[in-house]
Design goal:
Elements lengths: L5 E9 L5 H11 L5 H13 L6 H6 L3 H6 L6 E6 L3 E7 L19 E7 L6 H12 L4 E7 L8 H17 L8 E4 L23 H6 L14 E9 L3 E7 L5 E2 L3 E5 L7 E10 L2 E3 L1 E2 L4 E7 L11 E4 L6 E11 L6 E2 L5 E4 L2 E14 L6 E4 L3 E2 L4 E8 L3 E2 L11 E6 L2 E13 L1
Parallel strand pairs: 1-3, 1-4, 4-5, 5-6
Antiparallel strand pairs: 2-3, 7-8, 7-15, 8-14, 9-13, 10-11, 10-15, 11-12, 11-14, 16-22, 16-23, 16-25, 17-21, 18-19, 18-24, 19-20, 19-22, 24-25
């Protein structure tokens, strides 16, 4: 059996009209991941709605409402392959509701494509997305400078935007020297999948090749085991079988583990008896593996979704209070002290109260704008103190970044996103 290709979650970000969805559609179509028939249907639909030329965008914008507005609202997931990787594309809208699933669960992005239109250059939203990508742990970026056809495929325009974007990337801690900049024109299809003849001055990769050039994400096997539970099944003849995805570390048969917080909040100890992935028995599992496993010592009522498995001698951290850096994305009014929304952190959903707003930050640079503000609103970044209403496992960004990120949701919307920077251990 050929070695399975490495999987990468790739998020497309950038300003609302800079052509993200068209780029993704073009990439999937030209690389043979969408067939002619699907494409023809989308083209007809586009023309019928008076949006000829939007057909590539429609590949991702599957929702009727979005088609009518011609704007991406939700995240769409599409799989495609390069020689080295198989990728799940997360198409992030250019709007405030940008982050829906990006922080929680399987859609944590390993790498991002920042789309910047040649005719507009760096916009306020471009800055925000770069800052967000950094806050949310997107460690590798490709910068796609799109709509080169609108600037006569000019090298001077490309160089200018490359320089502007490089300056921006540096402010949040990306190293422009490690980033691939690709000029393209997604609507005509130049340099997305097919090399173009129209930019003889450019010798670098197409977007497709640039994606294949990404570095393999490092598997955090050196970190302590953290395995958030997604579901718990009771299987006749086997017993209790929790299911979840290994975030960090390695789990092996025979390991002494503990589930935190567990029903009593004190943790449930046990020993791993068996591990299964895709109906095959395994001796061990590593980050990214979705597994079912059986633990001697776990009863049906002891554990539930949102509990986290770790080594008995290095249990997952239960926090009575934590400090976080957050970005307010989509709140209907303002967030104040006392606000108690639901936090989605790994597989847990726990109501938490904001007990202090310590600092308001500039969302593009992270610099402090105000100490102890009365409230924060859309577009603000802030440092806040948070108290979970019931026991919650969370880790500090600097210790186990994979377990530090969360989304804040309220009445069906993602209102904010952030990461834990400090905590008080239970």
């Amino acid at each position: 059996m050929a070695k399975d290709k490495t999987h990468i979650n790739l998020v497309f970000v950038g300003h609302v009209d800079h052509g993200k969805s068209t780029t993704v559609g073009r990439l999937l179509f030209d690389s043979g991941n969408i067939d002619e028939q699907q494409m023809r249907k989308l083209k007809e639909k586009a023309e019928e709605l008076g949006k000829g030329g939007f057909e590539f965008a429609f590949v991702m914008d599957n929702l009727k409402e979005e088609r009518e507005r011609g704007v991406t609202i939700d995240l769409a997931h599409k799989r495609f392959d390069t020689p080295k990787y198989y990728l799940t594309i997360i198409d992030a809208p250019g709007h405030r509701d940008f982050i829906k699933n990006m922080i929680t669960g399987a859609s944590q992005a390993d790498a991002g494509v920042l789309v910047v239109a040649a005719n507009d250059g760096v916009m306020a939203q471009t800055k925000e997305h770069v800052f967000l990508s950094r806050t949310l742990g997107v460690n590798q970026l490709i910068v796609a400078i799109n709509k080169m056809d609108m600037k006569d495929y000019s090298q001077a325009v490309f160089d200018k935007i490359k320089s502007d974007v490089s300056t921006l990337l540096k402010t949040v801690g990306y190293n422009p020297a490690e980033i691939q900049f690709v000029p393209l024109a997604s609507l005509p299809g130049d340099n997305v999948f097919k090399k173009t003849q129209k930019m003889a001055w450019y010798a670098g990769p197409t977007l497709y090749e640039a994606i294949d050039n990404l570095k393999e994400p490092e598997k955090p096997t050196q970190l302590p085991l953290r395995l958030p539970i997604q579901d718990v099944y009771n299987i006749t003849g086997i017993g209790v079988v929790p299911v979840g995805r290994v975030e960090t570390g390695v789990v092996k048969i025979g390991d002494k583990v503990i589930a935190m917080p567990g029903r009593e909040g004190k943790g449930v100890p046990g020993e791993v008896k068996s591990i299964e992935m895709h109906h095959e028995q395994m001796q061990s599992a590593e980050p990214g593996d979705n597994i079912g496993f059986n633990v001697r010592g776990f009863g049906k009522k002891d554990i539930a979704r949102g509990d986290v498995i770790g080594p008995a001698d290095n249990p997952p951290t239960v926090a009575t209070e934590f400090t976080a850096q957050i970005v307010v994305l989509n709140h209907p009014s303002v967030m104040t002290v006392g606000y108690t929304p639901v936090f989605h952190i790994h597989t847990a959903q726990v109501a938490c109260q904001i007990t202090a707003i310590k600092k308001k930050l500039n969302p593009a640079t992270g610099e402090v704008l105000q100490e102890n503000p009365d409230f924060i609103k859309n577009g603000d970044a802030a440092i806040v103190t948070i108290k979970p209403i019931q026991p919650l496992v969370i880790e500090k960004q600097k210790d186990i970044p994979q377990m530090s990120r969360f989304a804040i949701r309220d009445s069906g919307q993602t209102v904010a996103a952030g990461m834990c920077t400090d905590l008080v251990k239970k």
